[in-house]
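Board notes (copied after class):
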Amino acid sequence: MSVQGIYGLSGSGIDVDSMVKVGMLNKQSQYDKIYKKEVKNEWLKEAYASIYSDLNTFKTSTMSTYKMSYTTNPMSAASTNSSVVSATANAEAANMSHTVKVNSVSSNAYMQSQSAITRNDESAGNSMYIKDIIAGQTEKTEAEYKAAVDAAASEEDKAKIRNEVALSFEISNGDPNAKSTTTTTISFTYAELYDSKQTLNDLAAKIKNADVNMTATYDSTNDAFSIYQKDGGVDNQIVLSVKNRTGAETKDGVTTNAKADDAARALINNLNLAKVDGDSMTSLPQLSETSNGVSSKAEKGTMTSVNSTAYTKNTKLSDIEGSVATNGLSFTINDGSASKTIVYTAEQAASKSLNDLMKDINGTGLNVTATLSNDGKLTLTNADSTKDITLSIDAMDTTDKATSSRAFLNTVFNAGLTTGTSTNTLTVTGTNGSVTIDGKDYATTSSKINVANVTYNVGAVGSATVSVSQDTDKIIENVKKFVEDYNKMLDELNSKYNETRYSDYDVLTKSQENAMTQDQITKWNEKAKSGLLYHDQTLGKIISAMREAIYTPVDSVDSSYNTMMSIGIESSTDRGHLRLDEDKLKKALAADPDCVYQIFASSGDAVNEKGESYTDYNKEGVINRITDKVNENLKTMKSYAGTSSSASDGSTLGDLILEMQTKMSNFKTMMDAFEKSLYKKYDAMEQAIQKLSMQMGYISNGN
């Protein structure tokens, strides 16, 4: 409360604050009533939210498990020779025996160091640093790299040097040319090699993270590196590919220098990898940059065209080979002492004639002269008849211009130029296995194969019989678990539904709380919150529905075991708490193996006379009945109280709480105004008394 007057100056002796408090008692009492209702509704909303959460979990997680055939009709599989094959069966597997013959076992692609890893830096011992393994193969040595970084003019230039790729190769899980194959580039920058000093463990990590379904490890004890394909079969491979770049490449601002391929070849070769196959190892070839392609045509003294139709000086180059008009022309001429390259763009090649080409050859300054004979043959003559004339195109160049240029020289001089291998590869492939099950052959790519709802785990070559039967022990275990889960939920609902209500314990006001200790408040509120859901209508419906689901026969069961009681599940208390008679359940399963699954999980789907689909409660399994009824009442609960303690959820109770909070706020504003008005009245009274006192003093002094 705020004091606004000049109380006490008159000498009246009136306790204004106390009088205002008395005047406010009625208003405070009215406010406290609203406050208590609002708090109790908050408690009620929290109580509903807790029950809603537990019921929702019970419906979606707990009960849904008992709809599954693997829970109510589990099958087991036993093998006469588990070292050859073991098995697991799902609920749909037939109760029968299967003959299994393992003809061969699949394998995974697997490569490992056959001998200790080689280090180009012989002084490095058993160093794990990649830089020591490939020493001398990077474009820049460590010293040259650091000098280049120090000499760089800007931080941007330094970053470019650091981020330049010094080693690069690709790893694939199959044929790199196949669309289904995943290929990832494994690379190391100069900064990684020389600043971070990355190791073989870092190489293994990059392979593991390459999304090619492989794992890689470095065994420091045995100084060996291994790569293992996680899936078996011929289609799951380990392919290491190294390009043969003719120059540096830049992509997305990152440059890969040409010697990155040499560094990669050195790394892979020095790992001394071999294919692991069972208990044996097969050496893998070393990668090299040699090309199988033909890159040049050479003849001593003279070289003459092989055309059957006479050329003229005006013959267009594009008439000899049409693709040069699209891709251009480029080839190198060597006279035995020096070389020159003839280069035409596509536009130039499209307009050039044979006469233009001869002029350009003759203008190279080489000892080679180009002429056109009377019979229309193009002839190249070396001034030194003892030396070769060589025409060449890099066999590793696979550009369109190189392809067109090879076609041109092959047409004119029958040069026989071909492309080489632009990429070296090291490939290890897994193997498929073969299994005969019940007389039918199956190819396998892993140790597992699923046939007729039975999963066979292949271990070794040999024969076995696999017997599939119902797992009665597992069914009993699962039914016991159902009884426990059901009782736990029902007991919780009954506890809240029958919880004692303490009418003498109401919501505490703020002033009451201020007069109590925290422990006293906590204990008081425990009593005040008790019984909030006592005989709640929604909880009552759920309890009744759960009990009804248990006791109502399931008409869709095709045997006499169509009730929970018939399979040993009965109520042990007047509140519906269940108990299980295991002997009775075993007897029921022996007579009707499907009874538990049908009683628990029958769908109850039906069609009425109009052809409309509906759910027949009497045919519906117990779990579906419980789920449907719980779900139905959860919707009612959600509409009334929401799913959390938040008032702004659009629920009926939430809207009521917000309304009461607004009412409390408005009432508080009115109370403040009323309090001020009381003080104002007493202020006026004090002033009047003071004035009267002054008048009386004046009169007294005058006498």
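Comment from the instructor: Residues 652-702 form the longest helix (51 residues). Residues 1-10 have pLDDT under 50 and may be disordered.
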